[in-house]
Amino acid sequence: MEKTYHLMATAAAGLEALVGKELDRLGYDAQVENYRVRFDGTARDILNANIWLRTADRVKIIVGEFEATTFDALFEGVKALPWEDYLNYDSEFPVAGRSKKSELFSVPDVQAITKKAIVNRLQDAYHIRTRLPENGYFAQLEVMIEKDHVIVTLDTTGPSLFKRGYRVNKGGAPLKENFAAALVLLTNWHPDRPFVDPTTGSGTLAIEAALIGRNIAPGLIRDFDIEQMDWFDKSLSDSVRDAAEAQADYDRKLDIQGFDIDENMVQIAIENAKHAGLGQDIVFKQLAAKDWTTEKQNGVIVANPPYGERLGELDAARELYAQMGAVYRQLPTWSKYILTSDLAFEEAYGEKATKRRKLYNGALRVDYFQYWGKRIKS
After folding, report:
1. Residue 138 in 3-state DSSP?
2. Which long-range contacts (C-beta less than 8 Å, at least 24 apart) are formed by 273-276?
3. 153 with 141: CB under 8 angstroms?
4. How many degrees, rounded to 5, is the angle at CA 92 between CA 86 and CA 93?
5. Residue 27 has pLDDT above 70, yes or no
6. Sheet holding 256-260, edge to edge
7. From CA 309, how far away is CA 242, in angstroms rounded?
8. How crowded is the C-beta side of 50, counted as CA atoms within 13 Å?
9. Alpha helices, DSSP H only, in the chain?
10. What is the DSSP letter of 175?
């Protein structure tokens, strides 16, 4: 029988429920917590989750968890875990650490003691008395303590899941790919409806919408740390990817457009879309938000305009918001979703949002202002 692992998908604040929904759709029993979603699965499921999750940051194995208020308890708790199931005698395993509201608050000490306990366990398991060489496969570990509850994890992802591998150029202040996917999934967009990103920048929102519209797994063209670990069955790499590839829908017609006032950004967006294999699915064009009009009905606009965070830029940002309001009010059947850190956005836009959702773009508090369209049946 295949081994089952206790797992967690980590997520940015405010996106945990979305990650939970994604895991539910993938067939896992997900438990949503702050900054993470727990689920169980086999080695195949670990790779499958890495390949499919659009809005998570990483997938980690929970090697163990226990209570500890003393360094002795921490040492013994970590040493009792079956590290030889995950690490070779020569594995390279740095230990990251975090502590919050706990007796053991010194993170460097927590890391050092955790590392020492793992070394002791591996020396006993592999009958080694000398120093461990740490020149084998890489395994990033983390010890997290919150309210004296210790969770020790092994990262299976490597570079964060937002690094899809398609972005050849970023331009200015780009959205992370998983955050862009979350913004799309938080709308009422369906692939049979028009999708417009009026401030497209490097094209991330439009590309993520196309990946969703085609049901293409976002991690299909990249590798994950778990695939280098010698306890992982390498034959799963091809079979999980083949199964994911088979679910993509390349026949569906998509109507996705991205506009930007900056011609250079439009060229970057076109390159990124080509690199994602979606060059034919998205129309990018140089166009100011105020100059866009359409006869189409029931579309969805998702915008990440400049926030005006820097000195002197707020007035220009608010002028853009006012222009958007003037244009978009002419489109009653369209739903509009606009992300900004400017809490006075509604005033500049000229209309109160149907709904606001608080999110975090990195460390920055942002609001997702939602204006729901009055949909007409076609």
Report:
1. strand
2. 273/203, 273/206, 273/207, 273/210, 275/166, 275/167, 275/168, 276/164, 276/166, 276/207, 276/210, 276/211
3. yes
4. 65
5. yes
6. 282-286, 256-260, 195-197, 300-303, 335-340, 364-371, 355-361
7. 44
8. 29
9. 16-25, 43-52, 71-79, 107-126, 177-185, 204-213, 235-246, 263-275, 314-328, 345-349
10. P
Task: Read off the amino acid at residue 284.
Answer: F
With a CB cutoff of 8 Å and minimum separation 6, the contacts of 221 are 164, 165, 166, 277
Separation between Cα atoms, residue 267 and residue 265, nearest integer Å: 5
Give yes or no for a contact between 59 and 157, defined as CB atoms under 8 angstroms apart.
yes
Angle (CA) 216-58-123 rounded to 5° is: 135
Instruction: Please state, in angstroms and rounded to a whole number, the distance separating the CA atoms of residues 197 and 92.
Output: 43
Enter the tokens of residue 161. Answer: 């899941």
What 8-state DSSP symbol labels residue 274?
H
Angle between helices 235-246 and 43-52 (to 10 degrees): 40
Q: How confident is the model at residue 378 (pLDDT cuts 50, 70, 90)?
A: low
pLDDT in tens, 277-332: 999 999 999 999 999 999 999 999 999 998 877 767 899 999 999 999 999 999 99
The secondary structure of residue 3, as a DSSP letter, is -
Q: What is the pLDDT of residues 221-270, one digit of tens each?
A: 999 999 999 999 999 999 999 999 999 999 999 999 999 999 999 999 99
Contacts of 266 (CB under 8 A, 6+ apart): 200, 258, 259, 260, 284, 285, 286
